[in-house]
Design goal:
mainly alpha, 2 domains, 12 helices
Length: about 270
Amino acid sequence: MDAASTFYLALKIGVAAMITLWAVSVPKRDASLVDLWWGPGFSVAAVVVWAFSGAPLTTPALVALALVIAWSARLGALMARRRRRHPGEDPRYTALRKAWDPGFWWKSLGVVFLLQAVIQWVVAFPAMAAASTATGALGVIGVLGAAVALGGLAVETVADNQLDAHRARHGSGSVCTTGLRAHVRYPNYLGEIAFWWGFWLIALDSGAWWSLVSPVLITFLLVKVSGAPMLEERLGDGRPGFAEWKARTPAFLPRFGRSAAAAGGQPGE
């Protein structure tokens, strides 16, 4: 298959998966089932494009596949743990259900499931492009990109583990202000942004400059739309310590030093 056909095939698979999950979600009244495909879908897209493109398993392709599979596995494990602890619909989707009823069941197909299928496909552009490249070796830009992506993945992993540990000790109603969150309010989103910018550098090294839309889109969504703004709205409901933590801690650009660490050690998600 040519490149365009393999990308289109990946989109069709993603759409089919989302429609299936939507059909299951309607009788269960649980739109958060959409999250079950968010992590694995990226790996499926990259593997499908590589397999059907006929491209050899070059070093860039191997690095791309390994990174996206590791990222998907991390997110899938995280979602599974949190769903075991809190079965049922995620509060974000419950709020949407209340806002969009009557008729949420059919509205959710477009604005929840199919929209996320398209966003997922676009964000996966660098992974799909790098996985199907015929370039035999990583250049300097590609190596730098792999390092940035690995760093972002590490930050995400540490941040999520710290948050889970905090919730296990203090409950989900408290605000975590320790660990990485003593230096930056959203280290998990920062790691996610770094991961996809790093992935774009890997794709850029193979000539896929056009996949720049991926990190730009994920950065915009996390900073301005569905990431930090929605989380701040949910946390800023009078929870003790939130206002003080927000005032002293930057959202995305970490601040280090003894003052930040000391402040983060005070009681406070």
